[in-house]
Amino acid sequence: MKEHILKILNTLGVKSARTKNIVKHISISFFYKAGAVLANFLLVPLTINFLDTENYGVWLIISSFIAWFSFFDIGLGNGLRNKLTEAKTNGDLKLARGYISSAYYTIAGVSLFMFCVFVFLNYFIDWASVFNTSEAFNTDLNLLMLLVFGFFCIQLVVGLVTNIYLADQSHSIQVKIHFSTQVVSLFTIWILTETSHSSLLIFGAIFAALPVIILLALNLLAFSNKFKELKPSLSLWSKSHLKDIMGVGFDFFIIQIAGIVIFSTDNFIISKLFSPEEVVPYNIAFKYFSILTIVFSIVVAPYWSSFTEAYVKKEYEWIKVSVNNIMRVWLLIPIVVVIMLLLSDWFYNIWVGDKVLVPFMLSVSMAVFVMSFTFNNIFVFFINGTGKIKVQLIVSIFMAIINIPLSIFMAKSLNMGVKGVIIATILSYLPGLILMPLQYNKIINNRARGIWNK
Question: How many beta carbons lie within 10 A of that of residue 295, not counting itself?
Fold first, then answer.
């Protein structure tokens, strides 16, 4: 498949090795992502049938909690990605291995500490009250949250391998992992529906373990073959290496926390304001329109590390051409959004039948969000690649501060219901839509000064 893609690119006159590699991985990613999306869509009705609507709503909230936990990597993943790309670009493999070793063993220590703290706190938390569900589920929820958090702590460590692949310009690795996870998940839930009674505990434990197993296998494969010379070693842990990673990594950490507040609290807010059942139509609409987000991310995501490499080499013309090409691709988004809106009711009916009713205005709100999110990502991925993220940091903190109260105000006080939550997210996002393109233009035209260049 790779050889055919490269032949097509040569025929089209694409000469840049970096661009060829990006297009190759985008093409591969589309293949795997199509399979992952199909598996995910098939998974939803199976899961609803297995768990029922209330338990499925609770699982969606737990999934959001998992996303909240992700900030505990303290930004090391993205910091490692940038610094590792720089080290490899400069041909310093010893420094690269030092960065990897420092990141792995630091995250391992943080994860072990977090799990010990969570074991203690979990004893005192009434999860049934947190999720606004029946007290009868409390015992199972306490055990489930312990398992979910435990597996997540392991995932923080083994998940670092994806940043190593990304720094190596192997841009399709995350899509391949997602594809594997979704296909195995689909097969697993099908087996559960045939052999087991409905159980949120069994379902959650299996789904928390699956990505860990896949990532652990990838680590073993990577460090015994492709990245054998970069295998982490405790003796190479260095405070100076950690400081280098954390220099940009801590800002990424704060941005991650802000992103979690903005994007992963919606399910919890809806559950507390209304009920777990109301989380389901919100997520049905979100998953439907996220097809566009997924497709666009396949196009944009490979550019992060490539922008880092090009920026280090001062290849600004390549960056300008690449951003312009991405913007041309984005122009298709509004057109596809309108088509998806017109087909939304028909699609929901085919997908989940009459079990879930999704209001049309909720779909409209999701469509506007997708257009805003994808446009902003064009410039965010470049800025992330350069590591000049102070402006993004400030914007993200502002967005995080206003998002929750604005969501509650619009959903409850203005009586907008569930759609008010996503509208609040859109309004919170507006400053970034102005400032991120402005910073890109300043940096690429060498006019960035002060905070714009930090």
Answer: 19
